[in-house]
Amino acid sequence: MERAELAGWLRLSLTPGIGDGAARKLLAAFGLPEAVFSQTHAALRQVVSHAQAEALQQAPQALQASVDQTWQWLQAAEGNGVTRRLVTLGDAGYPASLLEMADPPLMLYLLGASDFDLTQLQNSIAVVGSRNPTPQGATNARSFARALGDAGLPVVSGLALGVDGAAHQGALDAAGDAPRLATVAVVGTGLDRVYPARHRDLAHRITLQGLIVSELPLGTPPLTQNFPKRNRLIAGLARGTLVVEAALASGSLITARLTSEQGKEVFAIPGSIHSPQSRGCHALIRQGAKLVESVADILEELPPLRTGNAANAQSSNGHAGNEAAVSEDPLLDALGFEPVSLDALSARTGWSAAALQARMLELELDGHISRLPGGLFQRTASA
């Protein structure tokens, strides 16, 4: 992209009162942004309002600084095969699935491996969920994402703490050193910053075996109102959405709703009836989302997604509650898979509190159980 073309796209996106909808009408009528800004007021009035036409004939105050910043960002070298790109609504590399949305973004900023592009996401699955998952929820997210990766499917998520981060990690685990698109992180900030900062190392890994994507200009901070916009892109890029854990008031339910509105499949993992983090998934299932216990449940709903690796994914860690994984340990059998207190476990087993505490500590250190708030314990199973 030449600097003049970049300036045209940035000017169109920065002009006050011109949202994505009006911008698309202008592009359909006149072609590229540079042609839009060469039109007379009368010609513009055939497409937009008087106020919008007036705004289009004056360059925004922040335009030059934005052009300089973006141009410098695009020219800066990352190394290790990582590139910085800008994909516009008129580019061949613009994902077709976003064009089917009511409000596709004018521009997408991309940071990641040069061999990958967004058109490779036609068979991807979004994995989303709580920022504060239970230990089992985090395990499920990572294991399901790994199993999806084993089946050859890229995983799309939002780089947030909790389920998103675990999903990205699982997809990267599956890819290993293979030169394929493992995961895509759609973020709610400009690509010149990493949010949350704790995911800086994860973001670096993603740029080597995936892409980080944003529709927001460089320098955009993590503003609350931008994350629902981010969610619509997650839903738009992926073939379907898997919700791992979500409370009733959750951004993940927004992503699920947008997925459904786009005519795509929504999947949800059930959980304990006592866990607030399961209520969002249960609500989705009541509304028609498919209850999934394994990655096979996703693959069978979307037959075209099946690949030569699907059988491996089905038999790997992509199965929640796999009977083969159930231990013969009597205490684990008594614990089950729902959160339980030490008193309740003592009543089930007849063990003394001292004996239970000693054995529970061993199981916790071995990674078989997790300690939850409120003095509860939960068994940790592979998803």
Overview of this protein structure:
- With 383 residues, this protein is α/β, with parallel strands linked by helices.
- The chain folds into three domains: 63 residues, DNA polymerase, domain 1 (Orthogonal Bundle); 198 residues, Rossmann fold (3-Layer(aba) Sandwich), CATH 3.40.50; 57 residues, Orthogonal Bundle (Arc Repressor Mutant, subunit A), CATH 1.10.10.10.
- It is 43% helix and 13% strand.
- A nine-stranded mixed β-sheet has the order 1-2-6-5-4-3-7-8-9, sandwiched between helices. Strands 10-12-11 form a three-stranded antiparallel β-sheet.
- β8, α13 and β9 form a beta-alpha-beta unit.
- α8 runs parallel beside α9 and α9 runs parallel beside α10.
- It is elongated, with a radius of gyration of 24 Å.
- About 4% of the residues have low confidence.
